User: Which sequence fits this backbone?
């Protein structure tokens, strides 16, 4: 009996120690070797850049689902599967479209970009202007307005990522000019825009995408007023007095499948397990694009967003090893690059009751830039929608990675509008507490150079552990994070 009592005491002591050790997230379960292995697989040329609406996206999604199954995660998609399919509708400028200025015909996607789909026939005089903010409506109404790219009147977009410069200029001026009754808008490259022209051909020729019920009723800037972009060498031709634009723009329509991958780890508490902490990322990227002058055609998207895709797998393994009181839900969203479509679809058609979602922890690009810095968005009003959730995330950062946090990209005044460009947004719009982990853009962002070999695996591991520890704390908290009273986004 004495020996039995001693054995029982040792057993109970061991159990006590084990329980005591489980009160905090066992971040050691997030292993650097696992992240590296999975990252080099998902960001490999085998998946051809995982472009949304292609077989490559579906192939990558099947790989994610199989890895989730191996990790012990249960299926949480439709009909007992790991998948939630939705239809992706595409409008593309047809190759039958023609553009002619004076006597010169322009080759589509080589000499000229039609910026977005439209149905339009234009035969009208060209009026070249210097400043669209000051031009009189009577001067351009019923005509084709032409202008050269310039940052005049804007918060200098040249400080932004260079290839996004053209998008800022077009977005800033297209609607203003359309409101003055123009027939078409003709942009001519300046030196900086000319650098982006080869890339623009490979993006604009994809067209515009949409899903049923999207929070973006239209991804287009204008409705059937063509936005045409020609190269710098055409400047003298466009400025020549008495010049005409003769254009016929046609649009083709297609429907493709896209998919969310959804998995879960059930919580341990009889009541709280009916609630979910949602870990969010996206598995798609930009696919194969033959950009003039580039040495590689596959956009592997290692940072954007294979890093978070493999982070969710690692977090899933950790939760399977030690579940929280609340359940953990993992959603790899499809078609994020097309317009946050997978997350928009899931937020509108969740596979669990929407009211059971207590928090969304979204990640996008978590493996680059300075090793000791990161960003947490959803912290600065009006983007702050749950002070409780932010407090937990900041506490976990203070315990572990101790990143220096950059809050400038979270401000409503930031020209990149970074808060509005990832998968937490549809959930925040549904008044679900949501935060966004990121290490922010870098020179390789949306280029063929975003390869697995460029990722800081140690930083990726720290970011993954931070997301995991935050979610584990939420999963075991007595109360779910509260929504800020009167929360409302600025746009």
Assistant:
């Amino acid at each position: 009996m004495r020996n039995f009592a001693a054995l029982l005491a040792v057993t109970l002591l061991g159990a006590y120690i084990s329980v005591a050790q489980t009160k905090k997230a066992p971040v050691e379960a997030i292993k650097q070797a696992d992240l590296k292995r999975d990252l080099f697989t998902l960001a490999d040329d085998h998946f051809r850049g995982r472009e949304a609406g292609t077989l490559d996206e579906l192939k990558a999604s099947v790989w994610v689902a199989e890895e989730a199954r191996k990790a012990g995660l249960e299926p949480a998609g439709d009909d007992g599967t790991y998948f939630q399919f939705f239809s992706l509708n595409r409008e593309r400028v047809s190759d039958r479209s023609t553009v002619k200025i004076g006597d010169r015909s322009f080759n589509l996607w080589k000499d000229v970009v039609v910026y977005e789909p439209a149905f339009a026939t234009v035969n009208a005089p060209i009026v070249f202007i210097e400043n669209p903010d000051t031009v009189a409506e009577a001067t351009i109404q019923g005509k084709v307005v032409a202008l050269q790219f310039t940052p005049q009147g804007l918060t200098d977009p040249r400080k932004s990522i260079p290839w996004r410069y053209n998008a800022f200029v077009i977005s800033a001026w297209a609607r203003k000019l359309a409101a003055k009754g123009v027939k078409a808008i003709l942009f001519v490259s300046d030196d900086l825009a000319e650098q982006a022209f080869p890339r623009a051909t490979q993006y604009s020729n994809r067209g515009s995408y949409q899903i049923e019920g999207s929070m973006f009723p239209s991804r287009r800037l204008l409705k059937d007023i063509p936005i045409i972009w020609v190269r710098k060498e055409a400047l003298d031709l466009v400025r020549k007095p008495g010049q005409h634009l003769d254009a016929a723009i046609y649009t083709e329509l297609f429907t493709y499948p896209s998919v969310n991958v959804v998995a879960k780890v059930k919580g341990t508490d009889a009541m709280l397990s009916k609630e979910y902490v949602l870990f969010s990322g996206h598995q798609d990227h930009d696919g194969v694009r033959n950009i003039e002058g580039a040495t590689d055609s596959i956009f592997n998207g290692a940072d954007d967003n294979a890093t978070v895709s493999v982070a969710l797998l690692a977090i899933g393994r950790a939760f399977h090893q030690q579940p929280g009181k609340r359940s953990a839900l993992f959603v790899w969203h499809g078609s994020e690059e097309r317009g946050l479509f997978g997350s928009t679809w899931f937020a509108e058609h969740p596979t669990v009751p929407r009211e059971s979602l207590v928090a969304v922890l979204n990640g996008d690009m978590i493996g680059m830039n300075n090793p000791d810095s990161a960003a947490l968005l959803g912290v600065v009003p009006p983007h702050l929608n749950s002070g409780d959730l932010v407090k937990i995330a900041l506490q976990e950062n203070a315990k572990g990675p101790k990143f220096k946090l950059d809050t400038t990209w979270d401000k409503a005044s930031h020209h990149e509008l970074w808060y509005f460009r990832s998968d937490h947004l549809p959930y925040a719009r549904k008044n679900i507490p949501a935060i966004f982990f990121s290490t922010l853009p870098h020179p390789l962002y949306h280029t063929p150079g975003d390869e697995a070999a460029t990722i800081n695996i140690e930083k990726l591991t720290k970011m993954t552990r931070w997301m995991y520890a935050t979610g584990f704390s939420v999963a075991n908290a007595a109360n779910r994070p509260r929504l800020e009273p009167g929360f409302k986004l600025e746009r």
In short: The chain has two domains: 24-89+255-476, 95-249. The first strand starts at residue 74 and ends at 75.
